[in-house]
């Protein structure tokens, strides 16, 4: 099976996913909540766009955001130009959690890529980007 790249990639993906889940657990958040708060650290977004970016059903995102709001990691407010829409923003406490997440993920990535040269990492990133463009199955974590 060593010559089956798909299986090798899947096995490695499961291993990396498990390591990242363990690292993210330091925050007490689930992976989807981590992704949401990390995306919100890049700037506010309306709720529908956030659902699209995270590739989740809007009803699923409501539950994620409820949990983030209950933990004071994110807030929702009505968009002034369209009261039917919600703008989602990260809180200061959320920014602290994102800093912890980045530190935990950096540690996993440092260990994972320790034997690769910078040129190898650049090439790997390019190859993974190309593979990602052919993917059509949604992410099904949590």
From TrEMBL:
Domain HTH marR-type per the UniProt entry, residue ranges: 2-133
PANTHER family named among the record's database cross-references: MARR FAMILY REGULATORY PROTEIN, TRANSCRIPTIONAL REGULATOR, MARR FAMILY
Lineage, broadest ranks: Bacteria, Bacillati, Actinomycetota, Actinomycetes, Pseudonocardiales
InterPro entries, sorted: HTH_MarR-typ (IPR000835), MarR/SlyA-like (IPR039422), WH-like_DNA-bd_sf (IPR036388), WH_DNA-bd_sf (IPR036390)
PROSITE patterns for the chain: HTH_MARR_2
Keywords, comma-separated and alphabetical: DNA-binding
Protein name stated in the entry: DNA-binding MarR family transcriptional regulator
GO biological process per UniProt: response to stress
Superkingdom of origin organism: Bacteria
Molecular function per GO: DNA binding; DNA-binding transcription factor activity
One Pfam family recorded for the sequence: MarR_2
Signal peptide: none
Species, as recorded: Saccharothrix violaceirubra
């Amino acid at each position: 099976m060593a010559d089956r790249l798909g299986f090798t990639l899947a096995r490695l993906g499961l291993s990396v996913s498990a390591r990242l889940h363990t690292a993210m657990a330091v925050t007490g958040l689930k992976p989807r909540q981590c992704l949401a708060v990390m995306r919100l650290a890049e700037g506010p977004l309306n709720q529908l766009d956030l659902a699209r970016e995270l590739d989740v059903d809007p009803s699923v995102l409501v539950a994620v955001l409820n949990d983030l709001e209950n933990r004071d990691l994110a807030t929702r407010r009505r968009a002034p130009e369209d009261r039917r829409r919600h703008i989602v923003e990260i809180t200061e406490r959320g920014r602290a959690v994102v800093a912890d997440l980045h530190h935990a993920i950096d540690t996993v990535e440092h260990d994972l890529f320790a034997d690769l040269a910078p040129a190898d990492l650049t090439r790997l990133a390019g190859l993974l980007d190309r593979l990602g463009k052919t993917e059509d199955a949604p992410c099904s974590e949590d």
